[in-house]
Amino acid sequence: MSTQSLAEFLAHSVELESEARERYLELAESMTAHHNSEVAAFFARMAEESRLHLAEVAEIAAEHQLPELKAWEFQWPDEESPEAASYEAVHYRMSLRDAMLLALDNERAAQKFYASFAQTSEDAQTRQFAAQFAAEEASHAAQLVKKIGALPEESGHHLEEDDEPHMPE
């Protein structure tokens, strides 16, 4: 993606932040439905952080004509946007620590995505914005590391099911 224009980079950035916000909102709703209020509140805060970053990116992008990319035209390092939380990593009984570790992985993936643009883009303005976005994601990750460090240790038993699986005959 190093030869992509600033407009293409910003289109990816808008989508990345939009998908992060949407996923965190979904996870907050799911945790609320499962009465995991502490984790639901955390995911709601992460959705708000994504909304704020999206607003920042959208303000920059408003000055440019962004390409209208189809879902399959986005060039992500993996199947999904780097900051979209993995459904597989979520459990309805996950702890706040688990949720924060998931968010930390997302922040680091987004930081790596933006840093790759900062290092490889041929366009100086793209490198500048990418470095700025990477630094913001690194700052978010550092804040999460600090918060995780302040949490009490926990056992891994919170994810174990209380009931035997129900198998129809």
Automatic annotation (TrEMBL):
PROSITE patterns for this protein: FERRITIN_LIKE
Source organism superkingdom: Bacteria
Cross-referenced Gene3D superfamilies: 1.20.1260.10
InterPro entries: Ferritin-like, Ferritin-like_diiron, Ferritin-like_SF, Rr_diiron-bd_dom
Biased composition (Basic and acidic residues): 154-169
GO molecular function term, any single one: metal ion binding
Domain Ferritin-like diiron: 1-156
Span list, region Disordered: 149-169
Protein name, entry field: Ferritin family protein
Species this protein is from: Pseudohalioglobus sediminis
